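HUMAN: Mind sharing a backbone?

ASSISTANT:
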Amino acid sequence: MTYATVEDRLAIEQESPWSKRDLPATSWGQLVRTASKFPQRPAVSYQLLSDPTAAKVTLSWAELRARTAQTANMFRSLGVGESDVVAFLLPNCMEAVLTFLGGQTAGIVNPINPLLEADQIGAILRETNAKVLVTLRAFPRTDVAQKAAEAVRHAPNVKTVLEVDLVTYLTGAKRLIVPLIRPKNPARHHARVVSFHSELARQPKELTFSDSTEDRVAALFHTGGTTGMPMVARHRASGIIYNAWLGGRLLFTEKDVQICPLPMFHVFAAIVAMGASLSSGAHIVFPTPQGYRGEGVFDNFWKLIERYKVTFVITVPTAISALMQRPVDADISSLRLAFCGSAPLPVELYKRFEQTTKVTVCEGYGLTEATCLVSINPPDGLKKIGSIGIPFPYSDVQIRAVSDGAVCPPGEVGEICVSSPGVYGGMTYSDEEKNEGLFFPGPDSDAQYLRTGDLGRFDEDGYLWITGRAKDLIIRGGHNIDPATIEEVLAGHPAVAFAGAIGQPDVHSGELPCVYVELVKGATATEAELMDYASHHISERAAIPKHLEIIGELPKTAVGKVFKPDLRRRAITRVYNEALANADVAAEVVSVIEDKRRGLVAQLKRTGTVADADVVAALGGFTRPWEWKEQPG
């Protein structure tokens, strides 16, 4: 069956209730099914270097099944039971895949972002009560091992550290040289340190214990990480299977090849991409430890497509922007689709990608708290550029009034709320207090509607549109930045009375952090001084403001809270006017209005002779819409 319309979604749901579908209970069960169907077909490939001729490692489905069993057995031998947590702090590598699958088979797996600071990593390890941590052995040009050691020092619950040595992926002279220049062993801690590969080799290739038969929490994914303690979301095995089933039912077959240069600590890669391959038998390729961030990946990307005969690209807007700055220098005729998520994709960038590659882009929407997937522009149907498509089968999406939770009619903006097999009703966060007020009630406890914090609307065709955020998170290239991270630091400066941080429009990243500052009466400070202060005191590099501006008085509500919509209008005006001036377009922003359906809209006036195409060329890379203040003459 194709997936093109709302009617297709309803037809799939009418085949059977979700609870009656013949599906495995766990990822291990799904892996066993797929490996029995396609034992010799390639399952996962990984290469350490981005060169399209570099050495690669490929596991067949039968081999992945055997290695996953060994990994799960290894964790059980270390005392991990179904309620115990295996954390991993790894860049992309085959061991990250094995730990993700083996960890949730033996117990509960907890992927952690290696870009976080050591104190944040330690906080997550304590929050999840992780018993085992899988991380890197010291390796040149990465500080993961050092941060892991520091984090474990502050997490007494971690009993064993399993080290992965990336030297195993090197060949030739590099394999001999790297051990000689390896950084010194990191600081000591209380946990036992053993080799991942040595321990793995001791284990049998069949499970030595019975797989789970009942639904349970199988994974813990943290969200954000820009304040002291990221929130940790629980994922049930049933939610993980649901996401996997969607990929296998709607997108892939065993003949597909997907390339996923996104990190395995993120739900997009682990739950969606890896899950889709588990369900369908599609070959999944992970290029370099850092994925899109890896050295040479963008320069070699099209050649990697040709090498693996990729049919499906997992991507985000920032990656598409970078790829469009490079020529298509390889045979990419195998490509069929690109699945883009994590942040809105600007219309002009969407068009440029499709025109350049002849590949259809499907924008989708998901969030960690819902295990992931919520909606997609249907692969076989109409793509409404700028929308996030139609909900997936068995995902019930409602637009609710923020004030009282009433269901909004089509066209009216409210909070996007989701009930699906991926939503763990009432139990999403491991910190129970965080679940208070997170749900609107449904007909029963399993049908509670998760409040996403995103504002949106349904159009007359049943397509979902995001118009803003109920929360004030800054989304930089899909990465969530809490504005409080910036505001609290600047509030510590003696000259600062108030600070208001927002996301200013950016062609490449969607948003970049920007902050407006009001000084204490009588105090003096320059913007350069405050920017230097922020740069030295904000621990996360991504949260350091790209623009800081001192203004006489920040706009405030009647109760003294900084009124951020006015700051967003100010930022849109500045950024758009700079873009128009840089493109020598005779127009300027004269106001930014709040539109019920489109959110904030920049209104322009002509300052000379100018065509619409000129404005599109200058502003088309931004996600916020524009219009003429006056009627075009």
